[in-house]
Amino acid sequence: MGGSVSCCISPRESPHIRKRAAELEECPITVTEDVSEDTGTYLQHISDRELPDELAQEANPSDHPRASTLFLNKSQTDVREKRKSNYMNHMSPGLLTKKFSSCSTIFIDDSTVSQPNLKSTIKCVALAIYYHIKNRDSNRSLDIFDEKKHPLSREKVPSDYSVVDPEHKLIYRFIRTLFSSAQLTAECAIVTLIYLERLLTYAEMDICPSSWKRIVLGAILLASKVWDDQAVWNVDYCQILKDITVEDMNEMERHFLELLQFNINVPASVYAKYYFDLRSLADDNNLSFPLEPLSNKRAQKLEAISRLCEHKFKDLSRAAMRRSISVDNLVGIRNSQAVLS
After folding, report:
1. Which of 169, 277, 268 shows the shortest CA–CA distance to 227?
2. Number of H helices and number of E strands within the chain?
3. Helix or strand or coil: residue 305?
4. What are 150-179's pLDDT values in tens digits?
5. Alpha-carbon separation of residue 18 from 66, 137, 203 (angstroms)
6. Distance in angstroms (rounded) separating the CA atoms of residues 269 and 260
7. Around 164, how many Cα atoms within 13 Å sit in the side-chain half-sphere?
8. Which of 26, 178, 318, 331 is the most exposed, fewest CB within 10 Å of its CB?
9. 243: alpha, beta or left, given left = phi > 0 and alpha = psi -120 to 50?
10. Which of 1-15, 154-168, 208-222, 234-248 holds the top average pLDDT?
């Protein structure tokens, strides 16, 4: 629980996109044949299991830190169109609202990769889901996520529920309500987006107007249990969404896990990639994180944290040096014994 993950799937067990199957077959992993009998079972080195750089670009972004995130790719089309439209119409950016640092004042935000700003992170995650729905490739979905077959409320589902794309504000309000009621953290929002993109890739489906609420709910449910120390129970979500049953929540969670093939591992490098890509998405869409002048108190705090990290790095360097010296001494002793014998 917490920052650690309770399940870990090896890279070879992680599913790949079907269109890359032929490419993977062309890159077989070579295994050394001349292994002596007394060495036991041959264990493949981790570097032999890593994908080549050209294949890593097409790998699942929720598994591989070098693969581009899906939401950022889907948003680039709209971003380019906005920039082109502004250029063709000679539109000025308007009033300058973004703050910039100067010689006398330094502006920084309170969001870091380890402690993101909750409100800004939820806005970015909602925007990423918005682009997923708007720029989806098709309408592939599953019945378990269909809101008409498994409604979240007793209100009648509109007839055009599967056609009209939700606005960014509607997605943001839905996620904010769940996070506020369940008291979830900003880190959980980032993990939610990782699980969502992993589901879309593993199950080869799209997030559609008819399924986005239940997919987001399932991702939040799973992320809160994996990430937070005090996980929210399924029955707690039934108190937030009054008309949903515990049996429905349990069934949706089971299907979600099966579609993920129980791969709930989130490497630190993948988490960091999603965090910085969300910040890039915010910059592209003028969703700037709140900036505040750097005060003396905060500057002293940052300096203290920097010194602490510097001391830890020095201690690790000394420990690595001692281990290296010990290994060299051990090799020297063995060589001397071999010469004497």
Report:
1. 268
2. 12, 2
3. helix
4. 888 888 888 888 889 999 999 999 999 999
5. 19, 16, 11
6. 19
7. 9
8. 26
9. alpha
10. 208-222
191 contacts 225 by C-beta, under 8 angstroms? no
> Rounded to whole angstroms, how far apart are CA atoms 101 and 104?
8
Tokens (6 digits) for 330: 């051990």
Estimate to the nearest angstrom the gap between the alpha carbon of 206 and the chain centroid.
17
User: Which of 204, 205, 199, 235 shows the shortest CA–CA distance to 218?
Assistant: 199
Q: 118-134 and 212-227 are packed helices; what angle lies between their axes, rounded to 10 degrees? A: 140
**In Å, what is the CA distance from 103 to each residue of 100, 107, 194, 262?**
10, 11, 39, 52
Q: Is 57 helix (H, G, I), strand (E, B) or coil?
A: coil
Residue 253 corresponds to which tokens in the numbers above?
Answer: 């969670």
Taking the C-alpha atoms of residue 5 and residue 316, their distance in angstroms, rounded to an integer, is 24
User: Which residue has tokens 């049996």?
Assistant: 247
In 3-state terms, what secondary structure has residue 150? coil
Tell the residue number behind the tokens 């606005």, with chain if given. 167
What is residue 75's three-state secondary structure?
helix
Residue 189 has pLDDT above 90, yes or no: yes
What one-character-per-residue DSSP string does 210-266 give? TTHHHHHHHHHHHHHHHH-SSPPPHHHHHHHSTT--HHHHHHHHHHHHHHTTT----
pTM confidence score: 0.69
Query: Could you identify the residue written with the tokens 């979905």?
Result: 141
In contact, 118 and 271? CB cutoff 8 Å: no
Q: Which of 137, 262, 132 is nearest to 197 (CA)?
A: 132
Indicate the pairing of strand 291-293 with strand 107-109: antiparallel
296-323 pLDDT, tens digit each: 887 787 778 778 777 776 776 676 666 5
Residue in the block written with tokens 């292994």: 35
* Separation CA 275–CA 271 (nearest Å): 6
Structure tokens at 147: 């809101």
Residue type, position 265, single letter:
N
Strands (E) in the chain, as ranges, are 107-109, 291-293
